[in-house]
Structures are given as C-alpha cells and as structure tokens.
Amino acid sequence: MSGLEKQHKKEWFDNDAFWEGLYPYMFTEERFERTSEELEKVLELTKPEGKDVLDLCCGPGRYSVAMAKAGFNVTGVDRTQFLLDKARERAAEADVEIDWIQMDMRDFFRPDSFDLVLNMFTSFGYFDDKDEDLQVLGNIFTSLRPGGVVIIEMVGKEWLAKVFQPTISTSEADGSRLVQVHEVIDDWSRIRNEWILIKDGQTQTFKFHHTIYSGQEIKDRMKQVGFDDITLYGNFDGDEYGYNASRLIVVARRPSE
Asked: Does this model's pTM top 0.90?
C-alpha cells in the first residue's frame, strides 16, 4: 500500500498558480526534446536491475513518459493536479500507460516495489522543515526493493556559490522578460527566489525557496536513512562532482538483503 495523505501546513508549492504561470518557462519543448538523450545517461549511471520505476515529483511527465516508451513500468507521483494533467496528455500522445498518483512526496511510499526511483530537476528540499527531507529519503528507501537504486538531480551548493548572481534578467522566446532575484538565507542553507514575469504589459511575481545541499550534506543525509554505495556526479555524463560540476547528481542503492 502507498502512504496515506496527511495534513501539512501550506507552503509555496501548494499554489497551483505558481506552476501554471511558470510552466512555459520551466518546461520548454527543448527540455522535453533532451529527455531521451538524458535518460540513456541516467540508465548508464544507475543500471537498474528491473523494470519497475517510480518518478517522484514527476511534474508534467517528462521522464515518466520517456521511461514508459523505453519499456519500463512507471509510477508517476506529484502533488499538483495541473502538472499531472499535462503528464496525462503527454502519455496519451505517446500511447503509453503510466500509473499517475496525486500525492505529496512526504506521504507516498510503496514498500519493496521499485527497482529505480527518479527525483529530477531540483524537486528535493522544498520544505521549511529540513527534517522532512529525511522523511522523503526514508520513503524512497522503503519503496525500493533491496538492491534498488535512486537518482536525485539538483542544484549543488558548490556550483551555486561559484556562479551566484543576485539578479538575472532574460528575454524569452514569447517576447516576455523574466527577471530572477535570488537571496541565500539561513546560513547558506536555503535560497529565496523571486521570479518576475513581464508579458504583454502585465507583471506577475512568483516567490519560492528551497534548501541547497552540498555534495557531502546530501550524502550524509542518505547515509542516515540507510543508503550505501553513494556516488556523486557533476553531470549526466558521469563526470566527478568537482570544480567543474554543473549539477549535483546523487546515485545510491538500498543494500541487498
């Protein structure tokens, strides 16, 4: 059985208007087009022993659909109805069957059910209470079969410290302008973001924040819930997590029993 939905305090990610407003800028067609190539690299890094996959925080189904097309049995979990509707549309277009579940990642677990768990595109560390990240990792550990593998992909603290800019402004393909304002808070443990979208003479503001992990910090948290064989990579090509890393990618296994 899956975990039961619990009552959580409202946080920024509970606002569906955030995902609806920023969807065209977060989930571009170019990003979807890169997924098949990325997936090949993900499978090379993880080498799952079976075909049962959990895409945790699946969003609009970018990886879920690609994995289903590749012959995997996929369960996609996300808390946002808007994103799941987008995912269902893409699955229908691709003519693949996926088990879509609307649930908070803090609540979902399905013991000993998956060979591979994906958590991609900085979908980890959203909660104000950092201990809830441990709860999520524990759920992933429980949901994996012995010998199962998880991959988590996020912005790394080391990379962020190297490239951090308080303000970034970009012109988008639809003629809009996106201004991003960033502030690192809580002793360099969280980042507060404000995205200002200027389009057709109208301005919308979206605010969000999340925990930023160093390689060692996320590694320690994964050890804490029981994972071993933990490896850090700096990109999907499998390069080491070092000075030139562009992403923080963690691959870890539940010990075989």
From this structure: yes
